[in-house]
Sequence to fold (349 residues):
Amino acid sequence: MHITDVITPTHEKVIRIDGLDGGLTGFIALHSTTRGPAAGGLRMRPYAGPANALNDVLRLSRGMTFKNAAADLPLGGGKAVIVGDPASQKTPALLEQFGSVIDSLNGQYWTAEDMGMSPVDMAVLARKTRYVAGLADGEFASGDPSPITAKGIFNAVRTTAKHRFGSADLKGKTVSVQGLGNVGMHLCGLLRRAGAQLIVTDLNPDAVAEAEDQFAARAVPLDDIYGVKADIFAPCAIGAILNDKTIPQLQVAAVAGGANNQLATEADADALHARGILYAPDYVANGGGIINVATEILQIKDGPAWRDSKLEALKATMEAILTRAVATNRSPHRVADEIVAPKISPRAA
Ligand code: NAD
Fold:
């Protein structure tokens, strides 16, 4: 195993790890530790190559800085990636090696699960380092964050409805949901209980059938989700789905969902705004997950109460962002960055 520094002007520290088990390469990026240790998950994906992985880890770690600051957590932003197929190349030896590398950063970086990782994998990392959260067992274990992520998104949908329709009441409102995984399915349950009608899609037919059965959802083919007529669109699958192809198709008054990096480019925030579609910034809407993980990192004794108060504060932050955006006729994405950046200074750019 061989570790080298990657020099970037935008991040505090980035390392490249070559020669991991199976000959794999990985990166750990610390964008900012101004607010505290950098926190953000470990992702394993069959990236086209190390350059793509590096690009992803730089972008995602910066996103974590903003997400953690928006949630007012004493945490900076970081992320880790491994180039490889989690289905065939994720071995205990690989995870233990990666755990040792995380440990060598002496707590400057805390990891948790992200795409391609599970709580079981976190337990393997934890054999080599204590700087790992999202564990299923232990005194401060926070487990699966997705129900809390969904709760935060639900709050964001309600806040967005309030600004768009004059009331946060979702009774009779139609919400289109892309992605019925851990987050999307929980969100559907909350929306349904609040009286919303659901239109859903997913690659997985079993998940679609479950949503139809449990929540009386109407299913549509994958690409039709962009053009369906609904009040609010909740993207809960993959990133970059708000782009120059999809934004012209949207027939909704607002977008509020949980997927990370929903905007393909910054300009897409303005394209949504130009169409009169109110966009709830993703890194504020989906901050519930890292709030949940933070109870473990920070070893919060009364975790549920602390978590609930942080979720309420996040709701207030979304309220402030949308209020300022509507009052100044600007995209909420731009306003969110403006509100959050001072909390991160001097590395906000
Ligand atoms: P997941 O893997 O459990 O679910 C994703 C779902 O999206 C799967 O059911 C998958 O089949 C579906 N999907 C993938 N591509 C699709 C497409 N093109 N069209 C429709 N469906 C598609 O993931 P998750 O944990 O539910 O996370 C969903 C999103 O929320 C991700 O972007 C994730 O980064 C983000 N997020 C998750 C959490 C969390 O607590 N899990 C926290 C913050 C952000």
